[in-house]
Structure formats: structure tokens, C-alpha cells
């Protein structure tokens, strides 16, 4: 496998602007989607952990099941929503990075919600009376629990990041794989595979894997550091 | 030395009227009628499983009685000016100082006042060197001290303590006892449970004795220790198993 | 709690980032085209010239022919640039497109294992070639995705009077590249457009075993999506692109495009 590795390395070393643009877009789309999913999913997951309402069990089961939502289906839903003939067509978002972010957010939101719920639920069992005693009601407990569960939550966020950065089905459908505009690492890999440029495809795969590895290493290191520092 | 505990209206006495608690059809506590007066130092005693922790949680308002009433003088459903140190206190995953700051922020104290209180509390409880340390990594004794400091910083009128020194060595136990005594001197009403007879003798002004979820004796400490009326309490003091 | 505040702040700035994203929209049109056209590299060759001249950026969404036409029908593209004549004419007849213009053609070729077990090289015409494969029950990899290439293949089978089925007929249900990758592995025969074939590197044992029959010609048409149906269609810029592609200059640019020294597309605008 010396070939693809050498290709990957020389690709990086060449600083090819098209490649850099693709890497940049991939990171921007995925990281923004993770951020959005967290902004929505962390509070929602925590609320789901603390709230008691009829049908709560069903909601939990649905979110757990949605973790397995096929990316293509998520993409298709967003496509139909954003298409000019769809309800949000006038926003002209189809085939833009924003559409890709929306699709990926939809894809990882269930992961963030479900993992947050499970982490916060466990923590709440331990903290409930103490927090109540200190004067924090359920609502006020949400940020406290999220903050104290941050190391475990990081795992969920990373799982979401992994799913988003690896998927191609959704971004291909809603992004259109437009060169220089919505082409990401994964859609470029798909394209190069279709062109029979397997060496280049594998090289791109290696770069993608390296990026994912680096981000995971950073997150893991941060988690270890926090665990050591904060108990 | 008596320090006026805030401008808040007095919440004591706390009146328990035929209070009981049942869960899943099982009665765990029943028929408890008791008045906890301001300035009181009440020690709740009883065997394991007698219902002491449950009693404190009911008083503190963490759970509500399923029978009878719990009434504060201030007529609040759950009085604000109270604090509790749990049998196993939960410290937040942040620094010692941040743990002290947390309940103060919840009370809506302005930042400057909080900083001032945290500094004073750290000082008073000898926690200055530990201020920036992660609370979860403190030793058991240090954690208990922090839990006590956190409760104190909340300026409660009444402080509930559930076996505050059950897991500590004699010298740490002594430190905790001294603190509780000081709190009492400051005017804080104390309601605590303990298994340590010596500790009960040293701290109690009043004793409430629980047996199988019932309050079977409530008397001044001196009388209680001189000779309890109930046979179960006598057996308990003698160290005989009663269950 | 300061942590919570910091958290909310970063979340909010994230949202602001999203909101700022679509602000890049300048002068561009969206063209729905086929994967094979994109894969050949043709667009990379001609689009910079067009943009240089007009300042209009062309964003090409490459899809299967059926999907590209559907994209046009839904109004998600300004221009459709595909190769499926009958469907294109239907598209215009249904009122989704304004008018179809001829642009160019390329041709299909039959590729297969070098040792040619079905002796396709001996065939007199494309129909005979397909018959030979079916009679020999030699492995054949089909797109099976209703793409223009798949439709052309189906027409050839029909002309040969063969209903392809059986273990030798592999319907991949995927794009040209993926189908060629499969054919190279098996190895199997396959029908492919010359453009994809020339730029395809993972050929394994495959070679062109049949080419040149006029029925294998593959005409490309370009259509402006009807602004009367989708008011947001950038008719002016879209028409400018169509005019340029069919102009002498655009046609010359198409003829100029080569892969490995071979011309892939042959101008055919009137
Ligand atoms: N939520 C609950 N559901 C069922 N039983 C409970 C519940 N909470 C407490 N109990 C039971 O009520 C009884 C009293 O419990 P409690 O914790 O008050 O005992 P305690 O007097 O504090 O004992 P210890 O000295 O061991 O701390 C025990 O038998 C306990 O098992
Ligand atoms: Mg107990």
C-alpha cells in the first residue's frame, strides 16, 4: 500500500488549493453540524432525562432508533424540504454547504440527544437531592448536569462527529458534489472511486482518517486531562 | 458569639404534625409529631433503617409527607434558609471554590458578594490551600469539611446533618464536631443524626429516638442519657441489637 | 455559573456562523448534468473559459440522467445538460424545459476481458455483439439504474431480441465508475461511454472489444429549465451558458478536450 500513502503524502505536501478547499469545507460542514447538534441536542437530551410526561418512553425509543437513520434517508428528507418544489424552496439552500450542514445536523442530533439523555439521567439520580438542597430546581439543574457530565458527553459528541465526517449519502444528495463549492472529502472519494482513480481515492481516505484520528486524539486527551484535573 | 442570620423572616419553629411517609404501600415513617424550635440542637438517634435519613429528608423538603403535615413558621412550602449535609455529600466536578460559589449563585447573590463569602468561607474552614483543587479529588475528610463549609456559606437558619462524621477518623470527627458546635453558637439550629453515642452526648441538647419509623422518645439530652423511658432506647444505649 | 454562560455563548456564535454561510451567493447558475460527463473532466476544461468571459460561475451537480431531469423538473437547477434524447424531448413537451439544443455526442463502447470469451471482437454490429455475449452467457455488468447508458444498453438487448437474465447478468444498480470497477473484478463485459472509459484507470484486464457502430452514438442535449414554471430560474445567465456552449467558440472548446490524446466529445450544434 506504499502507493496510496505516498500519493496522500505528496497531495498534502503539494498544498493543492483544490484539496485544501475540500478539506476545509469538510471540516467546516462537519464541525458546524456537530456544534448545531450540540446546541440543540445537549439541552434537549438533558430535558428528556429530567422531564416526566406521558409518552416519554416512546420519545426515548424513537430517538434511540433514529441513531440508525440511514444517511441517504436523512439526505432525502432534507432534499425534499429544501428543493425549490419543497416547503423551504424559497430559501435557495439546496446544493449549498448550509444544506449539507442541515442534513448532517439531522443525522447526528439523535446520537447527541440519546447519549446526553442517558448520561444526564444517571447523573441526575446521583445529584438530584443534593442539587435540590442547594437550591437548584430541575430547569436550573440542566446546565449543571451537562457541565458535570462533560467528559462522558464528549464521547457522544465524538460519536456524532465520527458519523458526520464519515458519511457521504446525505451530503451527496443535498450538496450535489459541486466542484469547488460542495465537494467534501467523502464525496470526492466517491467521485474518484467512480473514475477508477482508486489510488487517489485511497489517498483521500487516508487524509480523512488522519484528520479524524487527530481530532479524536485531541478530544480524548482533553477528556483525560479533565478527568485527572476535575475528578 | 451570636451572629444575626440575615434579614430573612424566621422559618422556625418547624412543626411536624402526625407526619408519615409511605412508598409503594409500605409505611416507612408514621405518626411523627414534633416541634423544632429555633436555636435547638436536636440529635436524631435510632438503629440502622429506623428512618433517620428519611426523617431529615422530609424535614428538609426533599420529599413530601404522604400523611400529616410539615409546617414552617414562615409558611413557605419549602423554606429557603435551610441547608443539609448528606450522609454521602455530592460535590460538583469543579474546584473547591467553585463548589462554594455554586449555591450562592443560585441564590442570585451578586458576584462581588459571592467572592467575598467564598473567601471568608475558605478562610474559616481552613480550605485556602485547597481552593483551586478539584473537589472530587479531595480526601474523605476534606470532602466532608467542604460539604459543611458549603452548607454554612448558604447562611441557613437550620442545618440538617446526616451522620456527618460516620466515615471519618477520630481527629477529623473532632474537627467536624467543633464546627457544628460553633454553628450552634452562631445561632444556627442543628438537626443531626449519628450512630456515635459519644458524639450524641457531646452535641445534643435534645434527643429524638426513632424506632421502626416511629418517634418513640423526644426529650432533653440530659434526661435521655440519664435513662430513657422506652425499652428500645435503653437497649439501644446499652448496645443491644434491637430489630 | 460562568461555564454555562460560556457554553451558551459558544453555541450562539455557532448559530451566527451558520446564518452567515449563504452570504456567498454571487453570479452563478446551477447545471444538472450526468455523472459520466463530470467524471470525464469536460467541465473542468470548458467552464473556466465560460466564467472568464462572462463572469458567471457554473455549478455542476452531477447525477444520474433520471435524477438530473428530476432536479430540473423540481426547479433545483437552471439548466439541464444530459444525454437521453427521448426523455429530454418529453421534458420539454411537458413544459419543464424551454427548448432542447444539440451540443455534442460521444459514443458508447463495449469493454470486456482481453481474452474475449464471447468473441465479441468478431461481431459485425452492436446487435451481434450483444447476442454473442448472451449466447455465451459471458458475465455482463449492467448499470441497472435507468441512466442514459442503461437505457442505451436496454435498447441494444431489445434489438438483439434478448431478455437478459441469469447468473451471467450482473445488475449493479450504480454509477458507471462503480459498474466498471465491478466489471474489472469479475471480469465481465460492460457497456460504457467512451469518456468515462478513457479517464477510468482501474481497468484491470478490460479492453475495448467493440466500437464504431452508429447506434452507439450518444447525443447530448442542453435545455433551459422553464422560467414560466419556476420563476426563480436564472433564465438570462442560463441562456447565456447555452448560447456559449452552442457557439463556435464553445464548440471548439469541446472539440479541444482530450484525454490521453483522444478526443472524447464531438460538437454537433446546428
Ligand atoms: N425510596 C424508598 N423506597 C423504599 N424503601 C425506602 C426508601 N427510602 C428508604 N427506605 C427504607 O426506609 C427505611 C429507613 O431508611 P433510612 O435511610 O431513613 O434509615 P436510617 O435510619 O437513616 O438508617 P442508617 O442508619 O443505616 O442510615 C429503610 O428500611 C429503607 O430501606
Ligand atoms: Mg441514614
From TrEMBL, chain A:
Question: Which residue spans traverse the membrane?
Answer: 30-51, 58-82, 88-113, 198-222
Q: Which UniProt keywords apply?
A: Membrane, Transmembrane, Transmembrane helix
Any one GO biological process: transmembrane transport
Where is the ABC transmembrane type-1 domain positioned along the sequence? 23-219
SUPFAM superfamilies in the cross-refs: MetI-like
This protein's species is: Rhabdonatronobacter sediminivivens
Its localization reads: Cell membrane
CDD domains linked to this entry = TM_PBP2 (cd06261)
The protein, known as: ABC transporter permease
The yes or no answer to whether the keyword Ubl conjugation is present is: no
Q: Determine the domain of life of the protein's source.
A: Bacteria
InterPro entries for this protein: ABC_perm_TupB-like (IPR049783), MetI-like (IPR000515), MetI-like_sf (IPR035906)
What do the Gene Ontology cellular component annotations say?
plasma membrane
Protein topology in the membrane: Multi-pass membrane protein
From TrEMBL, chain B:
> Which residues lie in coiled coils?
none
Q: Where is the ABC transporter domain?
A: 14-237
Q: Where in the cell is it found?
A: Cell membrane
SUPFAM superfamilies, A to Z: P-loop containing nucleoside triphosphate hydrolases (SSF52540)
A Gene Ontology biological process annotation? phosphate ion transmembrane transport
Q: Which InterPro entries match?
A: AAA+_ATPase, ABC_transporter-like_ATP-bd, ABC_transporter-like_CS, MetN_ABC_transporter-like, P-loop_NTPase, PstB-like
Q: How does it sit in the membrane?
A: Peripheral membrane protein
Keywords attached to this entry = ATP-binding, Cell membrane, Membrane, Nucleotide-binding, Phosphate transport, Transport
**One GO term describing the cellular component:** plasma membrane
Q: Which GO terms describe its molecular function?
A: ATP binding; ATP hydrolysis activity; phosphate transmembrane transporter activity
- Give the family, as the similarity comment puts it: Belongs to the ABC transporter superfamily.
> What name has this protein been given in UniProt?
Phosphate ABC transporter ATP-binding protein
UniProtKB/TrEMBL annotation, chain C:
Q: Is the keyword Signal assigned to this protein?
A: yes
Q: Which residues form the signal peptide?
A: 1-25
Q: Does the keyword Metal-binding apply?
A: no
Q: Which InterPro entries match?
A: ABC-Tungstate_binding (IPR052738), PBP_domain (IPR024370)
What range(s) does the PBP domain occupy? 30-249
Keyword list (alphabetical) reads: Signal
Pfam families with a match to the protein in the record:
PBP_like_2 (PF12849)
This one is known as Substrate-binding domain-containing protein
Amino acid at each position: 500500500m506504499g502507493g496510496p500513502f505516498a500519493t496522500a503524502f505528496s497531495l498534502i505536501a503539494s498544498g493543492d488549493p483544490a484539496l485544501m478547499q475540500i478539506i476545509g469545507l469538510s471540516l467546516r460542514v462537519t464541525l458546524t453540524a456537530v456544534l448545531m447538534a450540540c446546541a440543540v441536542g445537549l439541552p434537549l437530551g438533558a430535558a428528556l432525562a429530567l422531564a416526566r410526561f406521558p409518552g416519554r418512553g416512546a420519545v426515548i425509543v424513537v430517538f434511540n432508533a433514529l441513531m440508525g437513520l440511514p444517511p441517504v434517508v436523512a439526505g432525502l428528507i432534507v432534499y425534499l424540504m429544501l428543493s425549490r418544489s419543497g416547503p423551504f424552496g424559497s430559501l435557495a439552500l439546496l446544493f449549498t454547504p448550509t444544506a449539507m450542514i442541515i442534513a448532517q445536523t439531522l443525522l447526528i442530533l439523535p446520537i447527541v440527544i440519546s447519549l446526553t439523555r442517558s448520561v444526564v439521567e444517571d447523573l441526575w439520580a446521583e445529584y438530584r437531592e443534593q442539587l435540590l438542597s442547594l437550591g437548584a430546581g430541575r430547569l436550573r439543574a440542566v446546565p449543571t448536569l451537562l457541565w458535570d457530565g462533560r467528559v462522558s458527553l464528549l464521547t457522544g459528541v465524538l460519536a456524532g462527529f465520527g458519523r458526520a465526517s464519515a458519511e457521504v449519502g446525505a451530503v451527496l444528495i443535498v450538496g450535489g458534489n459541486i466542484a469547488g463549492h460542495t465537494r467534501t472529502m467523502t464525496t470526492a472519494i466517491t467521485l474518484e472511486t467512480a473514475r477508477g482513480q482508486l489510488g487517489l481515492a485511497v489517498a483521500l481516505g487516508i487524509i480523512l482518517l488522519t484528520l479524524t484520528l487527530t481530532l479524536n486524539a485531541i478530544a480524548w486527551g482533553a477528556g483525560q486531562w479533565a478527568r485527572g484535573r476535575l475528578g | 458569639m451570636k451572629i444575626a442570620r440575615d434579614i430573612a423572616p424566621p422559618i422556625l419553629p418547624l412543626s411536624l404534625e402526625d407526619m408519615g411517609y409511605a412508598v409503594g404501600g409500605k409505611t416507612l415513617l408514621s405518626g411523627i409529631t414534633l416541634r423544632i424550635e429555633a436555636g435547638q440542637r436536636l440529635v436524631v438517634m435510632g438503629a440502622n433503617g429506623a428512618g433517620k435519613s428519611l426523617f431529615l429528608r422530609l424535614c428538609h423538603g426533599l420529599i413530601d409527607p404522604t400523611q400529616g403535615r410539615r409546617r414552617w413558621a414562615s409558611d413557605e412550602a419549602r423554606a429557603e434558609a435551610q441547608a443539609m449535609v448528606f450522609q454521602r455529600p455530592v460535590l460538583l466536578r469543579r474546584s473547591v471554590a467553585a463548589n462554594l460559589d455554586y449555591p450562592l449563585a443560585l441564590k442570585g447573590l451578586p458576584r462581588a458578594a459571592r467572592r467575598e463569602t467564598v473567601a471568608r468561607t475558605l478562610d474559616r474552614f481552613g480550605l485556602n490551600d485547597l481552593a483551586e483543587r478539584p473537589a472530587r479529588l479531595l480526601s474523605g475528610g476534606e470532602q466532608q469539611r467542604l460539604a459543611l463549609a458549603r452548607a454554612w456559606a448558604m447562611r441557613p437558619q437550620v442545618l440538617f446533618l446526616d451522620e456527618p462524621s460516620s466515615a471519618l477518623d477520630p481527629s477529623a470527627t473532632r474537627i467536624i464536631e467543633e464546627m457544628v458546635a460553633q454553628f450552634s453558637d452562631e445561632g444556627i439550629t442543628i438537626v443531626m443524626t449519628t450512630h456515635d453515642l459519644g458524639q450524641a452526648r457531646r452535641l445534643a441538647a435534645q434527643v429524638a429516638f426513632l424506632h421502626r419509623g416511629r418517634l418513640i422518645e423526644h426529650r432533653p439530652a440530659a434526661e435521655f442519657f440519664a435513662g430513657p423511658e422506652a425499652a428500645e432506647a435503653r437497649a439501644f444505649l446499652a448496645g443491644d441489637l434491637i430489630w | 455559573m460562568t461555564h454555562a454562560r460560556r457554553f451558551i455563548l459558544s453555541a450562539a456564535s455557532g448559530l451566527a456562523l451558520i446564518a452567515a454561510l449563504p452570504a456567498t451567493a454571487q453570479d452563478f447558475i446551477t447545471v444538472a448534468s450526468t455523472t459520466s460527463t463530470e467524471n470525464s473532466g469536460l467541465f473542468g476544461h470548458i467552464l473556466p473559459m465560460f466564467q472568464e468571459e462572462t463572469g458567471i460561475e457554473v455549478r455542476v451537480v452531477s447525477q444520474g440522467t433520471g435524477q438530473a431531469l428530476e432536479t430540473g423538473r423540481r426547479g433545483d437547477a437552471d439548466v439541464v445538460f444530459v444525454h437521453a434524447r427521448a426523455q429530454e424531448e418529453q421534458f420539454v413537451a411537458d413544459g419543464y424545459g424551454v427548448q432542447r439544443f444539440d451540443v455534442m455526442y460521444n459514443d458508447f463502447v463495449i469493454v470486456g476481458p482481453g481474452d474475449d470469451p464471447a468473441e465479441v471482437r468478431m461481431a459485425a454490429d452492436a446487435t451481434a455483439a450483444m447476442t454473442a455475449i448472451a449466447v455465451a452467457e459471458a458475465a455482463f455488468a449492467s448499470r441497472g439504474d435507468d441512466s442514459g447508458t442503461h437505457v442505451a444498453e436496454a435498447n441494444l438487448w431489445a434489438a438483439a431480441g434478448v431478455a437478459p437474465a441469469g447468473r451471467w447478468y450482473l445488475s449493479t444498480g450504480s454509477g458507471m465508475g462503480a459498474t466498471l470497477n465491478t466489471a474489472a473484478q469479475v471480469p465481465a463485459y460492460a457497456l460504457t461511454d467512451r469518456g468515462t472509459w478513457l479517464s477510468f484507470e482501474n481497468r484491470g484486464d478490460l479492453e475495448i472489444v467493440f466500437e464504431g457502430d452508429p447506434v452507439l452514438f450518444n447525443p447530448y442535449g442542453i435545455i433551459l429549465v422553464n422560467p414560466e414554471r419556476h420563476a426563480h430560474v436564472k433564465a438570462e445567465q442560463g441562456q447565456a451558458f447555452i448560447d456559449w456552449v452552442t457557439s463556435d467558440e464553445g464548440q471548439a472548446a469541446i472539440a479541444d478536450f482530450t484525454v490521453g490524446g483522444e478526443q472524447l466529445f464531438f460538437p454537433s450544434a446546428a
